[in-house]
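Customer escalation, tier 2.

The customer says the design service returned an amino acid string that "doesn't look like it belongs to this structure." They asked us to rerun it and document both sides in this ticket. The original structure tokens are below, unchanged.
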């Protein structure tokens, strides 16, 4: 079945975000419409300051739009209360921050287990899941280290494990490969890709065409607006001379 026939996991409707007011007003997003379906991985590219992180934080319920709507699995999250939003974020949304945002006082395993424990599963089960997610990121040996005892790339992989633990339906990743060497970056992308192939919807911000090539679709932002979209199948057919298969 075509993914287009299913309800999108994420729908952004005429989203705007203005930071500040008066002379310092910045129009970070100007009327964004975007749907991401189950199984889809979308790459967002664009110059520094074009609104990529703003788009992701609003899609993840971490910031509010100035106008417009954000639907996650059909629920308008801008209309949810604080508790409802927090619960939806823990259950449905995995978020990889541009600067990792690990909790310094918790070990790698505790950081990864935290969202699951907050969601009410037993500490023991949460730890088992956390260790499995860390092992997937090749970090099994570092489970009991604190963030300041790990390299930047290792912290980034812990942050990715935390976003993927517990089968979230929507995975949002802001430059998830920023601190990684290219081989580790590719393995992170392969993991994101397999999560989407299993039915999740994903958006990742990246500056690297090599990593964007893992996505089904690339969305280009400039000055807060979508200026171009490319299907991977379009690019493939240009390269191979064959008609798009999708
Ligand atoms: N809290 C804020 N207050 C005021 N302006 C902000 C705030 N956050 C972002 N902006 C502005 O909004 C615009 C978009 O910022 P955003 O962080 O979304 O860009 P970006 O595409 O993620 O850039 P980068 O590639 O450098 O991470 C920029 O002009 C930025 O200065
Ligand atoms: Mg950014």
């Amino acid at each position: 079945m075509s993914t287009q026939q299913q309800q999108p996991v994420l729908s952004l409707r005429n989203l705007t975000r203005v930071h500040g007011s008066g002379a310092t007003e910045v129009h970070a997003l100007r009327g964004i419409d975007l749907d991401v379906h189950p199984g889809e991985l979308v790459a967002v590219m664009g110059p520094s300051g074009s609104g990529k992180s703003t788009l992701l934080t609003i899609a993840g319920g971490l910031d509010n739009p100035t106008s417009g709507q954000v639907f996650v699995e059909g629920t308008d999250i801008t209309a949810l209360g604080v508790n409802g939003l927090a619960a939806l974020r823990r259950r449905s949304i995995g978020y990889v921050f541009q600067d990792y945002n690990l909790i310094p006082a918790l070990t790698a395993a505790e950081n990864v287990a935290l969202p699951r424990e907050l969601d009410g599963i037993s500490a023991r089960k949460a730890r088992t899941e956390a260790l499995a997610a860390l092992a997937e990121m090749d970090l099994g040996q570092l489970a009991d280290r604190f963030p300041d005892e790990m390299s930047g790339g290792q912290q980034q992989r812990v942050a990715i494990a935390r976003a993927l633990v517990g089968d979230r339906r929507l995975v949002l990743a802001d430059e998830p490969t920023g601190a990684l060497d290219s081989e580790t970056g590719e393995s992170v992308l392969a993991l994101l890709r397999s999560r989407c192939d299993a039915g999740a919807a994903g958006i990742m911000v990246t500056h690297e065409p090599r990593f964007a090539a893992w996505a089904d679709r690339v969305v280009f932002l400039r000055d807060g607006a979508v200026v171009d979209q490319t299907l991977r199948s379009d690019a493939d057919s240009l390269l191979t001379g064959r008609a798009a298969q999708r």
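Tier 2 assessment: The sequence is consistent with the input. The chain has one domain: 2-231. Confidence is low (pLDDT under 50) at residues 242-246. Sent an explanation to the customer and offered a walkthrough call.
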